[in-house]
Amino acid sequence: MASYLAQQTINALQLGSIYALIALGYSMVYGVLVMINFAHGDLFMLGAFACLLLATLLPVHLPLVVILLVVMIVIGAVGALIERIAYRPLRNAPRVSAIITALGCGLVIENTTLSISPYPHFMPELFHSTTIAWAGLTITTLQILIIGVSLALMIGLDLLVTRTPFGMAMRAISFDSRTVPLMGIPVNTLISRTFFLGAGLGGAAGVLYSLAYPQVSAGMGVLIGWKAFIAAVIGGIGSIRGAVLGGFILGAVEVMAVAFLPSTYRDLISYSLLLVILIFKPYGLLGQPPNQKV
Amino acid sequence: MNALEIDALTVSYGDIRAVKGISFDVRDGEIFTLIGANGAGKSSTLRAISQLLRHGGGVRFRGRELRGLAPEKVVALGLAHVPEGRGIFGNLTVMENLRLGAWIRTDPVGVADDFEKVFVIFPRLRERRDQAAGTLSGGEQQMLALGRALMSRASLLLLDEPSMGLAPKLVGEIYDVLRKINESGVTILLVEQNANIALRLAHRAAVLETGSITLAGNSADVLANPRVREAYLGA
Hints:
The complex is a heterodimer.
Chain A: H1 2-33, H2 40-56, H3 64-87, H4 95-116, E1 121-122, E2 131-134, E3 137-140, H5 141-163, H6 165-176, H7 187-212, E4 215-216, H8 220-235, H9 240-260, H10 266-280
Antiparallel strand pairs in A: 1-4, 2-3
Helix pairs in contact in A: 1-5, 1-6, 1-7, 1-8, 1-9, 2-3, 2-4, 2-7, 2-8, 3-7, 5-6, 5-7, 6-7, 8-9, 8-10, 9-10
Chain B: E1 2-13, E2 16-27, E3 31-35, H1 42-49, E4 56-61, E5 64-65, H2 71-76, E6 79-82, H3 94-101, H4 108-121, H5 123-127, H6 138-150, E7 156-160, H7 168-183, E8 187-192, H8 195-201, E9 204-209, E10 212-218, H9 219-224, H10 226-232
Parallel strand pairs in B: 3-8, 3-9, 6-7, 7-8
Antiparallel strand pairs in B: 1-2, 1-4, 4-5, 9-10
């Protein structure tokens, strides 16, 4: 029993780290713009497709780390581009316009992909995984890779946000974006970079996810995207560490629900968890109430 | 030599004209105060000067027209605006707020020097340097807002009601500091509802009433004006 639980914990860390990477994108964008980028789940999907294209169309065999970096940069640029052409013109429009635009962007990305590639593709093996047996547990080197890369990206982001001038400015924007220009800080440039980072992490999640579950399809971003959004809300949307916490909590709940209950209960339980947490913590576990200006 | 030349400045919110074509100059090295009641257009004037608001008319800073410039570009020219309500970032530490004030600086040694200078002027900020700025008292937040503006090494400070919400003793402390900042060579454009204290500090003044300047001159003359005494000083 104990080893079964420990085994499931490893699975939970793997799923949770992917949720956390995607949840970060929702939370970062919410932090600077107070909007939900509903296209973010589809950027995750594009990340998986970009990985597939790089792995199958090029005559050369790229190392996985190169694929990961290229995907992050490309998807990051797509995220920044969406902000520039679709969200920025609506910066001062009513909130609902931005939400509908974000939903629309998601649908455009998803259906464009679907029209180009109507059937799911199988992801070739990019990483030769071996199984390590230790103290009655089995862990694959792929699981170690996924959890390790995710944690490295999260720690990197946390250092960026807490230690660098860019991170300080990002947090300042989330507190009071109207005062930030008075420091000589170009707000639009920072918002672009925030989208780039958030989308890049979503792209990385797409790569890692398709290594673990090697099927790539146009609709894969929808359910995963919603789940990661729930994770961001559970952790407290706008909070970077909250997004990571929420991702791991949701991963654990889902894996444990399937491990101990009929697997059809999984989504019921994850959405119920959201509702229960929001009843007791309306701003999520680490979230702050909106800044009350004097 | 004028630090700032305001020429027929207008600011409108939709159909409502909040600033109705005012003109005044701020001379290099002086403290100029714009006094007036709540809603007279004082904050709108400052926000137009720092290009946070679109405006009509001219705003020339050291000979350069600012109209149409992005607000973040204005700071680099040497103009720092401490907004109404102080505008400190409550979720950042005192030190982080000061660092953001130095965003445009490219001389790390000079910045380190200036942290020290700010801490000498406001010793309480040094004690609280790693504390979240939102936990500071109102007076300390005003000190932080001023310190943050000084970190940009601005040659002109726009101050929007630094006395607001502060106990009289603290107002006195803040105003003593403003005098010292000015004596160190920084030009100040001060907006105040508290006409009494502002007129005692400033060299020259203008009275703003519903978007128009109704009186301007040396502070001592404005302070002695019977209408000003009646309307703003309760005498």
